[in-house]
Amino acid sequence: MRTFTPLETAERSLIKTYRKTLWNPFIAAVQRYELVSAGDHIAVCISGGKDSMALAKLMQELHRHSDRPFNLTFLAMDPGYNPENRRRLEENARALGVPLTIFESDIFDVTVQADKNPCYLCARMRRGCLYAKAQELGCNKIALGHHFSDVIETTVLGLFYGAQLQAMPPKLRSKNFPSMELIRPLYCVHEDAIVAWQNYNHLRFLQCACRFTEARDASGDGVGDSKRQEIKLLLRELKRGNPNIEKSIFQAIHGVQLDTFPGFKHRGAAWSFPEIYSGTAFFGGGDA
User: Per-residue pLDDT tens for 117-127?
Assistant: First the structure.
């Protein structure tokens, strides 16, 4: 029997061992939301964590097997990692056969001084830097590693702490970088499946690698000041009583009944209940 290298095992396990939980949901999202088109040049954004590295390998497999020719660039930004984290990022990429294009920024130094919402500021700045570099390299899309679990957590987080019913779309057009799009090919992939693939292949990826997780880890409760982590633990607890709760939330954001809401926003425009009821809103009147 042939002996496979660790790289070959990691790649085969994506489409063999974890075909039902990784490969199939990945392909389902790509097709359902029309994320990849012929002629695309996609910058797969690599943070060094499990999600982005799994995304990189899945995109490589898609590139090998797709009948729609497209190009890939694996783009990694160093926002201020310590030397150990930078080294692990590079070593994991080499071990998994992911050719990185790395560039530096000072985002960690900037956001650590922020008094409010440092994680939001960091995410916005990182995305802007990735858009700019990807566009410079001739890409028309950036692919991020947000997965099914992120979608659910973001939806609940917005409801509980943002006072809004707002989901995470599978793709969106950039407002600041014309002709650029953001896609999320892991949209239907559960985080547990990524963790299982990682453990199966004995891989050690970066966690968050930022300075704010130190406070969370030191808190002793696994939450600290992280509302997202709080929601993650809440959903885990709720799943004990209702194993399908995440599936229900996911289906709910695909079947929003706008005519039952007293108000909503569409493409930046706010519509109030009187407008909806009278029929002046864009989708019609309020008949029962």
Answer: 666 677 778 88
